[in-house]
């Protein structure tokens, strides 16, 4: 994906770049899908001795790369955030004269950087032939290749000072170079530094009203299913009534949509399994060994399909059904034909699923739409906290701390504390996004027309999910910029560099996140409010709430325009200053600080990337607010009913 984005950047026109970007987008979808499975697999390794196994089977590579599973997951998540930021920039890139100059100068060096990075990443793939000297050699080549790109970019930017260029071009290309440097720094520091991580102590045993209701609900459902086994009349009426009990027990879910999904998968698995059971009977009859021989390829096929998460439960039921039907009826082979036995299996599963479906909706129902809204509310609050922490880090880095403000989110006295806080926020956010993807799939099959005016809009909630990722990606970039600035020691001695304005935008974002999250907090169903033990006083959203949303969007739009205008003014001021010094026949090295000082140039690039990220953050927040406003109108008003 990284290589395809570099190829798109090196194109001369936008049409050619779209070809590479479309391929990169396909790979991005595959990565997102894989990361969902990775998160669930990572949770499963909590009780496994994974670190011990790494030390046993990876001992030859311990002194080269020594990452535990959490470090590996953090590396991949951070890497995909930076690569997607590169993709966003190339999508918005202006393929003009300034871009063509950069492309012509940087083409060979960028391709060499991509090659060196590929060789270094190949070292992360475990194999026994790699040595520490080879890793260090690849790492050195990677850093040297980026230094070459950096020096050539200084040359291009210096040449462009003599010509008039748009400030957006300078910002976007500086952001591109910053992302390249961030990826190199990430691979270097993460792989070769063995960190001691802090551990969070969680209280696993908590008194929770919702857990008690869930346990009580499970008890009632299992009790209803057990009457088909315990009561003699029903046990005689429904032969093999234990199948009804098993179906009722095995189709419970955390939400109504999750239970519906499990019921659908169990029913499909039962039908396919019953079909193979009948085929097995026609081929093997009542012969035990031939029956087992016929079942082996079916179980092998189901075992292979189980590797796909969306088919896991379905193929498990499909694999067990012919075993129960064919081998379970052998003691009664003379009195019960296999066709009747298979139909009995399907019939009683349908009865059990029907009972479970009714009980799931009637007894303390927890709808996926409620959990989805709660998760979105938590994610927006996480973004709001992230904005507040950025303000605090911003003041600390630029020595602009307010002595009267003692309310700090976290003690940022050490660099490691800041990085740990950012890493922990990123893990929480990505986990919430993974849960949202699952809940959207569950919510779309629930009877949402009971409480939403226009039903559940799957497309808008998926769009909402992607826009949350866009916002957090920009917040992550701003955090990375601040951490990079924190490493620079001579920031106060730089002339001609203007600091980005973030305070006003942070206040607006705080207000917007509060208003947006309040919608998802107040529009949950009454059953969920009772289930969680929190009934809100506000029973309906009125027109004034809609006006607040519209006012937030108007203010955000003004902020986007303001950021563009202010940066344009600052850039024009610097250009006029440079032109004036040029006309006075002075050497460029005397008034352009980054010509011979790579450290100052790195600060310049970081600040430019921060300017770009702040502008993109405001634009992403505006898009998110627009989507939430659409969801608000669809779900709570009658505006679109005539259509």
UniProtKB/TrEMBL annotation:
**Bilayer topology annotation:** Multi-pass membrane protein
Q: Does the keyword Transcription apply?
A: no
Compartment(s): Cell membrane
Secretion signal: which residues?
A: none
Q: Which residues form the Integral membrane bound transporter domain?
A: 234-358
Q: Which GO terms describe its cellular component?
A: plasma membrane
Q: What is this protein called?
A: Integral membrane bound transporter domain-containing protein
Q: Which InterPro entries has this protein been placed in?
A: Memb_transporter_dom (IPR049453)
Give the UniProt keywords, A-Z: Cell membrane, Membrane, Transmembrane, Transmembrane helix
Q: Which Pfam families does the entry mention?
A: FUSC_2
Mark the transmembrane ranges: 214-235, 267-283, 350-372
């Amino acid at each position: 994906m990284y290589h395809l984005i570099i190829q798109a950047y090196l194109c001369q026109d936008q049409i050619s770049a779209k070809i590479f970007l479309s391929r990169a987008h396909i790979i991005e979808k595959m990565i997102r899908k894989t990361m969902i499975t990775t998160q669930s697999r990572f949770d499963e390794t909590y009780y496994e001795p994974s670190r011990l196994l790494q030390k046993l089977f990876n001992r030859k590579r311990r002194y080269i790369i020594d990452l535990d599973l959490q470090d590996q997951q953090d590396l991949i998540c951070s890497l995909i955030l930076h690569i997607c930021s590169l993709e966003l920039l190339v999508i918005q890139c202006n393929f003009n004269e300034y871009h063509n100059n950069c492309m012509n100068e940087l083409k060979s060096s960028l391709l060499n950087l991509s090659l060196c990075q590929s060789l270094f990443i190949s070292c992360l793939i475990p194999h026994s032939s790699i040595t520490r000297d080879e890793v260090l050699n690849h790492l050195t080549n990677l850093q040297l290749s980026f230094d070459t790109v950096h020096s050539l970019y200084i040359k291009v930017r210096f040449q462009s000072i003599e010509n008039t260029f748009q400030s957006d071009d300078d910002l976007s290309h500086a952001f591109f170079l910053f992302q390249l440097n961030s990826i190199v720094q990430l691979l270097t520091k993460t792989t070769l530094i063995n960190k001691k991580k802090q551990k969070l102590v969680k209280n696993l045993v908590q008194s929770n009203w919702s857990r008690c209701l869930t346990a009580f609900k499970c008890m009632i459902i299992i009790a209803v299913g057990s009457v088909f086994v315990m009561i003699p009349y029903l046990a005689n009426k429904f032969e093999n009534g234990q199948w009804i009990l098993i179906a009722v027990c095995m189709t419970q879910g955390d939400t109504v949509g999750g239970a519906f999904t499990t019921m659908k998968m169990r029913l499909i698995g039962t039908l396919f399994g019953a079909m193979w059971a009948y085929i097995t009977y026609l081929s093997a009859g009542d012969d035990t060994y031939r029956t087992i021989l016929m079942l082996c390829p079916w179980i092998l096929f189901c075992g292979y399909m189980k590797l796909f998460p969306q088919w896991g439960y379905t193929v498990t039921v499909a694999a067990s059904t012919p075993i129960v039907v064919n081998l379970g009826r052998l003691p009664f082979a003379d009195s019960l034909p296999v066709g009747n036995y298979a139909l009995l299996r399907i019939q009683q599963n349908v009865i059990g699923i029907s009972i479970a479906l009714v009980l799931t909706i009637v007894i303390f129902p927890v709808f996926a739409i409620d959990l989805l809204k709660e998760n979105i509310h938590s994610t927006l609050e996480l973004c709001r906290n992230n904005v507040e922490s950025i303000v605090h880090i911003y003041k600390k880095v630029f020595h602009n701390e307010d002595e009267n403000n003692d309310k700090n989110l976290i003690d940022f006295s050490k660099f490691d504390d800041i990085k740990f806080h950012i890493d922990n926020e990123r893990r929480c956010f990505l986990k919430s996004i993974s849960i949202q993807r699952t809940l959207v799939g569950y919510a779309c099959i629930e009877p949402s027309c009971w409480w939403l005016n226009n039903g559940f809009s799957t497309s808008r909630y998926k769009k909402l999910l992607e826009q949350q990722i866009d916002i957090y990606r920009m917040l992550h970039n701003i955090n990375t910029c601040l951490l990079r600035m924190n490493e620079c020691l001579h920031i106060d001695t730089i002339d001609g560099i203007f600091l980005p304005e973030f305070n006003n935008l942070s206040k607006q974002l705080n207000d917007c996140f509060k208003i947006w999250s309040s919608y998802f907090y107040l529009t949950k169903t009454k059953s969920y409010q009772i289930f969680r033990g929190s009934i809100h006083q506000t029973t309906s959203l009125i027109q004034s709430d809609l006006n607040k949303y519209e006012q937030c969007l108007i203010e955000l739009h003004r902020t986007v325009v303001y950021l563009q205008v202010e940066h344009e003014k600052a850039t024009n001021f610097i250009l006029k200053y440079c032109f004036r010094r040029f006309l006075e026949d002075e050497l460029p090295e005397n008034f352009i600080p980054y010509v011979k000082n790579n450290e100052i140039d790195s600060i310049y690039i970081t600040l430019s990337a921060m300017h770009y990220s702040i502008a993109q953050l405001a634009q992403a927040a505006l898009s998110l607010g627009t989507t939430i406003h659409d969801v608000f109108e669809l779900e709570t008003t009658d505006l679109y009913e005539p259509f």
